[in-house]
């Protein structure tokens, strides 16, 4: 026999799974792991973007660098490049940490409500199994 | 306001019925406008810039996600820029990659904002951008506006080279590259647009999301006024020419579009029918979940019914519309009496909250 309340609950759960796949994927991570994973992605992306910026700047000044290749103060330029890279990395990592934290917290709130409904469904199954078991015991006793 | 709510509910009902087709049609129209704008804005390579190719790409883009549409648009622009020089294409692609690595990867959901920004800049409608997207999108869409403005700047510089407006020889790689970078860095118009558009978007979004009455209306009106003032001030400070008439017209237009889109924006989120399937030990379930909607009716006129002893003095005017009691269709009466009339603003808000019920209301704080 079809249980209407169970169907309603399962429908709501299915709709949540369809609309919030990202939240379900996020549920597999601890908060710290998720933030660390995104920090690694941020570091890689900022490094890649910075290298491309350096390429653009380098190609712009290529004639100067070729001319002054021997007399260039590489230490000064190196410190400048690394300094800007470090500042950029710090800013983007901080932004990434704050936003990932917010995203994780709001996602977890939605996921908790999903898990509560899942638990309700589990209890429904348990109650149905117990009911069937009682009926079987009663018929066996008769 | 009540009329707008009624209209919104009717559009919601319509969208709910035809959401599958409406999404495809809207995406097709957007894609077609985008590719035709690219064709008219650059359109250097006649092989890929024909109307037929635009229609085919728009048809394909209507069924695919926005990231694919972005790829098509960038590919089209890159092929067009190849006609000038591969340096232009290389700069265009590298700048996009840099923007994506730093900014755009966080706002991939707002790809349409990124694509719409250069189109509006091309049409002179950049003044409407903060009002439309500030009211309808989240603050993260400001990154897409920034990215779109930068890409438009590069395209307009390259277009100037192809139009022969400069003394640069496109065959001289280093000279061409230096010219593009110099123009890009010295482009005060781009800086003005970035500062004003992004700042206004964040401001309008901040006001709109406050928890006080008429927050949306205050945001759009104050946003339009501040938008006009800020653009005039920025143009004076940075010595950039702008069209004042265009600024006022587009600000007003943007305010109207932004206000209407903010009222209708939730239609696209949760009003569509959901088809889900799942199973348990005994059955397979194929469920179609239709969100409940209540159409707000217009205010009813209240007629005072007099007492029985006053009936002699009460004159009844009859006309062709009058009918006898047993002619009334009781089913029709029952259907119509179930509708909730729109009353005070408080009741409107409650009705609005009830009408906006969705399964996700249970999962939102």
Q: Please, could you describe this protein's structure?
A:
The complex is a heterodimer of chains A (142) and B (365). With 142 residues, chain A is mostly helical. Chain A contains 5 helices and no strands. In chain A, helix 3 runs antiparallel to helix 5. Chain B has 2 domains: 2-270, no CATH class; 274-362, no CATH class. Chain B is built from 14 helices and 2 strands. Chain B has helices at residues 2-41, 51-63, 66-82, 86-102, 111-123, 129-136, 141-162, 173-185, 188-208, 215-238, 244-264, 267-270, 330-337, 345-355; strands at residues 274-279, 284-289. Chain B has a two-stranded antiparallel ribbon with strand order 1-2. The model of chain B is unreliable at 323-327, 338-345 and 356-365 (pLDDT under 50). Classes of the chains: A mainly alpha (142), B mainly alpha (365). Chain A binds chain B through residues 2, 6-7, 10-16, 18-20, 45-46, 48-49, 52-53, 55-56, 59-60, 62-63, 92, 99, 106, 109-110, 113-114, and chain B through 91, 94, 97-98, 101-102, 105-106, 174, 177-178, 181, 274, 276-278, 280, 283, 285, 287, 289, 359-360, 362-365.
Summarize the structure.
The complex is a heterodimer of chains A (142) and B (365). Chain A has 5 helices and no strands.
Helix percentage of chain A: over 70%
The run of helices and strands of chain B is HHHHHHHHHHHHEEHH
Number of helices of chain B: 14
Q: How many whole angstroms does the radius of gyration of chain A measure?
A: 29 Å
Question: Helix-strand pattern of chain A, N to C?
Answer: HHHHH
Main sheet record of chain B: 2 strands, antiparallel
What's the SSE blueprint?
The complex is a heterodimer of chains A (142) and B (365).
Chain A: H1 4-19, H2 21-26, H3 31-60, H4 62-67, H5 74-141
Chain B: H1 2-41, H2 51-63, H3 66-82, H4 86-102, H5 111-123, H6 129-136, H7 141-162, H8 173-185, H9 188-208, H10 215-238, H11 244-264, H12 267-270, E1 274-279, E2 284-289, H13 330-337, H14 345-355
Antiparallel strand pairs in B: 1-2
Helix pairs in contact in B: 1-2, 1-3, 1-5, 2-3, 3-4, 3-5, 4-7, 5-7, 6-9, 6-11, 7-9, 9-10, 10-11
């Amino acid at each position: 026999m079809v249980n209407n309340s169970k169907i309603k609950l399962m429908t709501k759960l299915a709709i949540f799974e369809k609309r919030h796949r990202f939240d379900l994927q996020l549920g597999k991570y601890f908060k710290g792991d998720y933030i660390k994973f995104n920090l690694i992605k941020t570091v890689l992306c900022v490094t890649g973007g910075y290298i491309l910026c350096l390429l653009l700047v380098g190609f712009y000044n290529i004639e100067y660098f070729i001319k002054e290749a021997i007399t260039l103060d590489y230490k000064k330029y190196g410190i400048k490049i690394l300094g800007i890279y470090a500042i950029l990395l710090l800013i983007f990592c901080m932004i990434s940490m704050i936003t990932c934290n917010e995203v994780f917290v709001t996602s977890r709130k939605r996921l908790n409500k999903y898990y509560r409904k899942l638990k309700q469904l589990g209890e429904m199954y348990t109650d149905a199994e117990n009911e069937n078991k009682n009926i079987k015991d009663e018929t066996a006793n008769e | 306001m009540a009329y707008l709510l009624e209209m919104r509910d009717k559009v919601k009902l319509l969208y709910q019925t035809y959401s599958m087709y409406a999404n495809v049609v809207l995406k097709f129209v957007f894609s077609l406008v985008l590719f035709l704008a690219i064709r008219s804005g650059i359109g250097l390579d006649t092989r890929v810039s024909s109307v037929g190719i635009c229609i085919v790409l728009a048809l394909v883009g209507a069924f695919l996600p926005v990231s694919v549409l972005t790829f098509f648009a960038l590919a089209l622009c890159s092929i067009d820029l190849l006609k000038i020089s591969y340096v232009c294409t290389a700069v265009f692609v590298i700048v996009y990659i840099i923007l994506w690595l730093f900014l755009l990867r966080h706002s991939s959901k707002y790809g349409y904002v990124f694509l719409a920004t250069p189109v509006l800049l091309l049409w002179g409608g950049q003044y409407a951008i903060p009002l439309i997207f500030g009211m309808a999108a989240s603050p993260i869409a400001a990154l897409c506006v920034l990215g779109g403005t930068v890409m438009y700047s590069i395209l307009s510089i390259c277009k100037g080279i192809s139009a022969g407006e400069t003394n640069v020889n496109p065959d001289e790689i280093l000279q061409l590259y230096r010219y593009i970078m110099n123009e890009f860095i010295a482009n005060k118009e781009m800086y003005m647009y970035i500062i004003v558009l992004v700042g206004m978007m964040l401001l309008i979004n901040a006001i709109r999301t406050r928890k006080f009455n008429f927050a949306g209306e205050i945001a759009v009106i104050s946003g339009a006024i501040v938008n006009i003032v800020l653009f005039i001030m920025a143009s004076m400070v940075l010595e950039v020419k702008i069209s004042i008439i265009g600024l006022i017209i587009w600000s007003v237009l943007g305010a109207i579009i932004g206000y209407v889109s903010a009222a209708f924006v939730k239609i696209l989120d949760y009003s569509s029918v959901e088809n889900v399937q799942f199973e348990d030990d005994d059955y397979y379930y194929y469920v179609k979940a239709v969100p409940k909607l209540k159409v707000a009716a217009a205010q009813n006129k209240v007629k005072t019914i007099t007492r029985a002893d006053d009936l002699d003095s009460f004159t009844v005017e009859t006309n062709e519309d009058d009918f006898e009691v047993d002619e009334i269709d009781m089913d029709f009466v029952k259907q119509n009496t179930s509708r909730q009339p729109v009353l005070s603003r408080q009741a409107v808000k409650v009705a609005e909250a009830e009408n906006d019920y969705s399964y996700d209301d249970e999962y939102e704080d």
